[in-house]
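Example record

One chain of 358 residues, shown exactly as stored in the release files.
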Amino acid sequence: MHLCRDNCQCANCVHYSTKQRLLDTFSIPHDISVKSSHLLKDNILTIEWSDGHSSTYTREFLSLTAENMAQRAVVRQGLTSLALWDASIQRHPPRVVASPDLKVNALLRRIRKYGFCYIDSVDHSTPIATEELLKSISFIRETHYGGFYDFTADLASQDTAYTNIALEAHTDTTYFSDPAGLQAFHLLSHTDGEGGASLLVDGFKVAQELCETDKEAYKILSTVNVHCHASGNEGISIQPYRGFPVLEHDLATGALLRVRWNSSDRASIELPIYEVETWYNAARKFDALLKKKENEYWEQLTPGRVLIFDNWRVLHGRSAFTGKRRICGGYINRDDWISKYKMEDMGRERVLGALASG
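Predicted structure tokens for this chain:
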């Protein structure tokens, strides 16, 4: 009875605009009971409670309340059918064209399905158009590197990203408790040199391949915590509040949720010294799959083409380069972009309707 009473949706119990609870849950009598109930037309249920309160519940609300945790996760995460890919995606990569008529959800739907998307015909004379594109999705995340970035390989920040050396496939910000959700790159210019091709690898596809070929290795990478850090800049040593496994799964669905893979930022492995080799053996197999030619998608970025990818799924890297490259971009929080995607794709009623259930 407490569950049903606690989830009354009337204006006295839930704020109409904010959808936040107004009801003091623990003011509900512990022996609350139904005094009477009536099923009205359109399947609307009214309940008179023993404390004198009256509640009305729609059929849609009751249906959502009855959903199990896996069904609710569909709404919570904005789950959709994913398209896993390998190097062959080079033939038809997901893309949209920047224009005044471009719908943000057309972009986000592709990112949610494939893990990345190109936006063509973006003005590259200045970084302004790129920054506005990211802001149309959500807030640009501030980090110890700043917010929206516009840089060359000058080591202005103490990170290998600010050099011209090759970078293996990795995910960014593994040293945060909450790694960045989306990441964007826009090559504004590349003068007096060559190289610097971008590498993308579908971490979910590679994880599936590992699971199919070596379930024990998959289990180890899904359960053993790894610690990471960012300590290159003066006065900074960022570390998550705890270690996390390379492969993280949703507790409700069991589905793979996030890949954390960055050997450059890795610190310790949370295993006794006499067991740590088991992690290295499993990681070696995952690394070999990441570097398998069939799984590596290489593409030379060009001015006017913005790349946005899901940092929880897609690993990125680059080949070494010469000359001077100017790149702009930024991070967007996972919660922010998924919120935008859900509200645009599922609609406000569906998203908010799944909240009040427990």
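Notes: Residues 226 and 269 are 5 Å apart (CA to CA).
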